[in-house]
Amino acid sequence: MKQKVTYNFLIILTAAILASCTTLQHENKNQSEKYASKFQGISDTKKILSIMTTEEKVAQLFVVMPEQLAQNSITTATKRLSIAARQYPVGGFALFSRHIENPEQLRAFTRGLQKISELPPIIAVDEEGGLISRLANSRNFSLPKFSPAETIGATKNTANARNEGRIIGKYLQDFGFNMDFAPVADVNTNPENVVIGSRAFGSDPALVSKMVGAFLQGLHKTKTKGCIKHFPGHGDTNGDTHSDYVALTKTWDEIKKCELIPFVQNFAYADSVMVAHVTVPDVDPLYPASLSKLLISGKLREELGYKGIILTDALNMGAIEKNYGSGEACVLAFEAGNDILLMPKDFYAAYDAVLEAVNSGRISTQRLDESVLRILEFKCKQK
């Protein structure tokens, strides 16, 4: 995926956001300014799960852009968004450059997203450093700017990646984010690659692995969660899944010797793994990885032993939307083993389809509960 505020206030704000998962209640302390939540004050995630409705569980699977709920372009937590979030209590929000105007607006926006959410939301952004840096590259922000990952990798000094992760994590926390869709764990071995390129730390899987781990350690110093992407590897491709079908034509054994190394060697540090929309014909000629049970449940979970959160790459990308549509894509993605369904083009169609699949028995309540519990624990876990 392509005013000043006093020091004391920043400390209070950041502490409130971090504390929200500990008690699973809203950071806003003024009870008259928010509706009563049945989850307020409950810290046991299994207890929370036990009192959730099926509709609430399904909504928690989705991380969306705010306008996908409000159905209009917004940079504030509007009343319309608040009403929609209460009816569809999604698991979180992803913000992009168009949602970011200036420091004061952004802090108000993320506070608003916390306030309208019945359960503490994931608030995420792509802040990789280099080209893909939604905050640092915004013209109204004076934030540290880093060289592309490729340049940092070329130093072969993991302290540089660790420092980058720490600095990025610190300012993300200051602005109300709790998750970074970074770092890129792809190994850039194809000079014709049009998607990854300098976003990767390099072409040597061992070096990439060390840099990815260091970046994650830096993020964790600030209690910011990271996401290693794009499983099973997007570095040896020459197409763009933002547009349409892309294949990774290596055999699984070849992929294990290169693309998978930065993923597998960092499972101990990884908060989450994002699955790409690339197709791996040697494993599953029918479905892209993000919709493939063979790759997610069979390979990532069972063979490779990954136990944490799995999320799709953005489901509004051409490789998915052109070929499957929002509803069926989300059902297939969840059946495949994803926990979080990221940004389907039509959220409401996707929500309805997944809910119907649960109500009809196509998706079991046990399978739904497994992912929702994993999501609740992910939100509350402190690195």
Concise summary:
The protein has helices spanning 7-23, 45-51, 54-60, 66-70, 79-87, 103-116, 149-154, 158-174, 205-220, 252-256, 261-264, 293-303, 318-321, 326-336, 347-360, 365-380; strands spanning 62-64, 92-95, 122-125, 127-129, 132-133, 179-180, 228-231, 272-275, 309-312, 341-342. With 383 residues, it is an alpha/beta fold.
Write structural notes for this entry:
Helices cover 43% and strands 8% of the residues. It has 383 residues and is α/β, with parallel strands linked by helices. The strands form three sheets. The protein has a five-stranded parallel β-sheet with strand order 6-3-2-1-10. It has a three-stranded parallel β-sheet with strand order 7-8-9. Helix 3 (54-60) crosses helix 15 (347-360). The longest helix is centred in the N-terminal third of the chain and has 17 residues, at 7-23. The two termini are 24 Å apart.
